[in-house]
Amino acid sequence: MKKMNSGSLNSNITSNRNGKNNNIAVSQKNDNKKLAKEIKSLVLWKSPLKTLKYASLEIIYLLKTNVNRLLHRRAQLTALLILLCSLAIAFYIPGQHQQLIDYFKNKGFFAVYWLGLGILSSVGLGTGLHTFLLYLGPHIASVTLAAYECSSLNFPEPPYPNEILCPDENGSAHLTVPSLWSIMAKVRYEAFLWGAGTALGELPPYFMAKAARLSGNNTDEIENLQELEKLQKRKEKGEKLSLFDKGKLMMEDIVERVGFFGILLCASIPNPLFDLAGITCGHFLVPFWKFFGATLIGKAVIKMHIQKIFVIISFNENLVDKFIDILARIPLIGVRLQKPFKGFFEGQKQRLHRNNHKQSKGPSDGNLLASVFEYFVFAMICYFIVSIVNTFAQSCCKRMRKQQSNSTATDAGSNKKES
After folding, report:
1. What does the pLDDT look like over 305-342, one tens digit per residue?
2. Which of 56, 186, 192, 359 has the fewest CB atoms within 10 Å around its CB?
3. Considering the domain boundaries, does residue 291 fall inside one?
4. Is 163 within the bounds of a domain?
5. Using H for helix, E for strand and C for coil, what is the string for the chain?
């Protein structure tokens, strides 16, 4: 009888424990669902005041943490301040070194500008500013159109690269249309710097995932890997996956199996899922130079040459003329569409010869198309800023909810010990 009673007691205890564990799991799922809903609702167009509040709190939190990190590294901070003060003094003191400073100032601004645009294009886990479409692509297209119009690439510097003007027409009979390779060589520096910037922009996910793996913290990068594991299980069960989910799994598989050449392949093509490659490499502790070297070669060399060739061929003078002629064949709106495009390209050609002709303004239709593009650029920048605000707000909400759940868990544990 005693054995029977003890067995029944043990079974009751285990059943109670299982019931409690099931209740805890269900409550955790419900909490996760509530958190996901709350995070999704934190966007400016749904709850602007709440989103701005959380975004400002996140900015303050980031400033505090970064300032504390700097204060803990006082030696490096002091050396940096001394270096900056020395540069400022050398910048304002007159002397022969000013020529060198002017050279580095011009070239340095050029390098920082294109590097910064490249970084902006790849940061933000898919919410980056698409600076190739907005800046580098139009720049390459302008150089291509100018090369065919001027029959030369010897644009006067200055104002190039800020503004493109045809060289003087003296000896224009000997001018020949530049080749594809010469146009590519003309824009190689800005293209390489932009590509290097995109490679630098892929480093934060790599470093964060690597730090999380070494420290054991459960960060967003680990959650992304858990999401990949769930997708893998769904694939093994035979469930249907979307094309985007299949791309995620393929990306992880290529990077994990092929290594350096897998990273190189993924970086060499336009790939919105490349952030997962950085997260995967960081989680599996891939060496830094293996990851960054493959990313730099892929993005700054291979991918940039592909994109340059595409833009230069697309803006070939013959293709542009054919494109304008095709626009006129569109029923009803063809002529109306053709007029602004034709005016825009004619205006661009007139601007290239501004040194030789006193005309500085193109047709009004061309100006209309240029203003439309400016509004498009402005809208893209606004969208980028809005996405940053939303991301800050969502990360702040997530961090605060995790802190609350951790504090409640510790309180519950202390209460159990006391009881």
Report:
1. 988 988 888 887 777 777 777 777 777 777 777 777 77
2. 359
3. no
4. no
5. CHHHHHHHHHHHHHHHHHHHHHHHHHHHHHHHHHHHHHHHHCCCCCCHHHHHHHHHHHHHHHHHHHHHHHHHCHHHHHHHHHHHHHHHHHHHCCCCHHHHHHHHHHHHHHHHHHHHHHHHHHCCCCCCCCHHHHHHHHHHHHHHHHHHHHCCCCCCCCCCCCCCCCCCCCCHHHCCCCCHHHHHHHCHHHHHHHHHHHHHHCHHHHHHHHHHHHHCCCCHHHHHHHHHHHHHHHHHHCCCCCHHHHHHHHHHHHHHHHCHHHHHHHHCCCCCCHHHHHHHHHHCCCCHHHHHHHHHHHHHHHHHHHHHHHHHHHCCHHHHHHHHHHHHCCCCCHHHHHHHHHHHHHHHHHHHCCCCCCCCCCCHHHHHHHHHHHHHHHHHHHHHHHHHHHHHHHHHHHHHHHHHHHHHHHHHHHHHHHC
